[in-house]
Design a protein that fits this description.
single chain; alpha/beta; 7-stranded mixed beta sheet; two-stranded antiparallel ribbon
């Protein structure tokens, strides 16, 4: 058995969490919503048996010192190329405080509770647009809220990170002059862009 976690940071009763348990019999998802990182981690801890292998957080866990993140610029172009809205992937400076702050607090809390657990950025709505398998995955489960669905996609991305899934890359390796607000190493495991968009 191996477990992965997804977190969709938000405001009051708008922070989704999901624990994905993978075992011989298949995949089980446990999910819910809460208000903040501390409560969220408590809920997650009650559903995991030991440290999760990896966690995907739907929030920017790193920034650059100047301009847009390379990852955001290229993933934004990939979403538009797939027929989605360019506004799906916002500039870090335009995001809501709850997403930014609670995401970083969750990353810090995870590192303190489970130091060996890998952590990655995730972007559920962009993932749904560019990776058809992600939509096929969530369509199997009856989520009560979009927050839980997006948290499940965070767990899906965490599993892809752990498995080093083909077709995915660590976008953080393509950035320059990084700032890590949590003070901990993180990744951004997300599908590679189509060939024509790689150098935009």
């Amino acid at each position: 058995m191996i477990q992965f976690v997804g977190i969709d940071p938000g405001g009051e009763l708008a922070m989704g969490w999901c624990v994905m348990t993978v075992h011989d019999a298949g995949v089980r998802l446990d999910s819910g919503i809460c208000t903040g990182a501390d409560t969220c981690l408590g809920s997650i801890a009650s559903h995991v048996e030991g440290p999760p292998a990896a966690v995907g957080i739907d929030a920017p866990l790193y920034s650059t010192y100047d301009g847009d993140r390379v990852s955001d610029r290229r993933i934004r172009a990939a979403v538009a190329f797939a027929g989605g809205s360019g506004g799906t992937v916002n500039h870090v400076n335009s995001l809501r405080g709850a997403c930014l702050v609670q995401g970083i607090l969750a990353a810090v809390a995870i590192a303190q509770r489970w130091p060996s657990t890998r952590v990655t950025d995730s972007h559920p709505k962009a993932l749904l647009r560019v990776w058809p398998e992600a939509d096929a995955f969530v369509s199997k489960y009856p989520f009560r809220t979009d927050h839980e669905r997006d948290a499940a996609l965070g767990a899906y991305a965490a599993k892809a990170y752990y498995d080093q899934s083909p077709g995915w890359v660590d976008w953080i390796t393509r950035e320059n002059k990084l700032f890590l607000p949590s003070g901990r190493p993180v990744a951004y495991w997300f599908p590679e862009c189509p060939d024509g968009l790689r150098h935009r």
